[in-house]
Write a structure and sequence with these properties.
alpha/beta; seven-stranded mixed sheet; 13 helices; about 50% helix; elongated; disordered N terminus; disordered C terminus
Length: about 300
């Protein structure tokens, strides 16, 4: 039996040097994942103490340098900055001559496709948009979560294979998104993931108000089952008083929310109306029950407590 050990990825010749501009939660995790694939992180930029701490934890011994120096050192540069910052950053780097011909420039914004990198393209860079459809914590667990994570990929056709190869090397699954569909793609993810966090946090607060000592333990199995059912069956998984047309129960909910958590009423009503529309469209909510239900929701919108019939 052979006792030889597998070579450490750090001992393999790296194919690309990797730099990170913006050491938020995403950039260091992606660079660490690329390092596992044999690439070599060589520089990272970060301003805040939190950014520097993340870089030190996920990319130890990689020097912190200004953004222009990151581009000077790296063959592949990850631009992992907030969406609203990205266009100005790209223009600034291109205008100052920091971009090198043949350099792979990758941004991770969900909102933008490859066109936001046009100033760098004119300077000779190779533009890629690789957006991981994942929430990040800024800790090493993010690198593990990339395994099987879908990436929204947008790039010029001649760079499509290169973009998809990078995603696969990070353990992800490439999903091609057309340039003009990037905003819709990003809105869909925000609707599902970001709003889910708000809904869960509100639900936990209300359960505590109701006297539940461990709302996370109560919600965990319920939400896990609901998510699994929704992913498997879509609208057919709708349950609860709105889908059943229980107008009295919904009116009682609105009354209690106005009393204990008025800040949640608008969200409850909006989601209830959306749920009612989908339940009606898919034949789950009977039309004769929908009239009373929609009346309660309209009354709730106007500020009355409704009649808990």
């Amino acid at each position: 039996m052979s006792t030889s050990q597998q070579p450490d990825p750090r001992d393999r010749p790296a194919r690309l040097t990797v730099g990170v501009v913006g050491a938020g939660r995403v950039g260091p995790a992606l660079a660490a994942s690329l390092q596992l694939a044999g690439h070599r992180p060589v520089a990272v930029s970060g301003v805040s103490d939190a950014s520097r701490k993340r870089a030190a934890e996920l990319l130890p011994d990689v020097p912190l340098v200004p953004p222009a120096e990151v581009l000077e050192r790296a063959d592949l540069v990850l631009l992992t900055v907030p969406d609203d910052t990205l266009p100005g950053l790209v223009e600034g780097l291109a205008d100052t001559g920091a971009v090198r011909p043949g350099q792979l420039l990758v941004h991770t914004s969900g909102r933008y496709g490859a066109k936001v990198l046009d100033p760098a393209l004119r300077a000779g860079a190779l533009p890629l948009a690789l957006h991981p459809a994942m929430t990040f914590t800024g800790t090493p667990v993010d690198v593990q979560r990339l395994a099987g994570c879908s990436f929204g990929v947008t790039a010029p056709e001649e760079l499509r294979l290169a973009a998809e190869a990078l995603v696969i090397e990070m353990g992800g699954e490439p999903e091609w998104i057309a340039e003009e569909m990037r905003p819709l793609y990003h809105a869909a993810l925000a609707l599902g993931a970001n709003h889910l966090v708000t809904l869960v946090a509100q639900s936990m607060e209300l359960l505590r108000e109701a006297g539940v000592t461990a709302p996370d333990r109560m919600l965990g199995p319920l939400l896990g089952a609901a998510l699994d059912n929704a992913l498997r069956s879509g609208d057919a998984a709708l349950t609860g008083p709105v889908a059943r047309g229980d107008a009295g129960t919904v009116a009682a909910h609105v009354a209690e929310l106005r009393k204990h958590a008025p800040q949640t009423v608008a969200g409850y009503l909006a989601m209830a109306r959306a749920t009612a529309d989908r339940a009606l469209a898919h034949g789950l909510l009977k039309p004769e029950l929908a009239e009373d239900l929609l009346g309660v929701l309209a009354t709730g919108t106007n500020g009355a407590e409704g009649d808990a019939r």
